[in-house]
Amino acid sequence: MAADHGTKKNIQWPMTECGRREVVMLHRVISVVAVSGLCACSGGTPGHDEMGLKYQKRATPVLQALALYERDHSSLPDSLDELTPAYLNRLPTQPELSLDAKSRQLSFTYAPSLPRIGKINCYAQLGDEQWSCQGYL
Length: 137
What we know:
Number of helices: 2
Order of helices and strands: HHEEEE
Structural class: alpha+beta
Shape: rod-shaped
Number of strands: 4
Largest sheet: 4 strands, antiparallel
């Protein structure tokens, strides 16, 4: 009896239609898990990606203008539009800023670039130029 060394046999197992669907479904699950792993491993703190830092840079002058407005008027404006043109030449078009006078916060929300997914919400307390950001899916 001769030994069969080094030869590989390609064995094909018969697959039913049900088996094909299971293989396709398994492939999809593996793809989703792989993408999720990439997103989780993309690292970084919410708001510290390129877009988040760019938006914070654009929004910080609005924080500064709000502080000056409050100093001059002893109150916050009813609308950010009141900051122009006396305190700012113009408001940034992106990000879309929101002022909550009650909590004294300026905030914006944005969708980070891939591979991250979801939304990031960033806010800063008036009188403080430090931004805090939180991500959510």
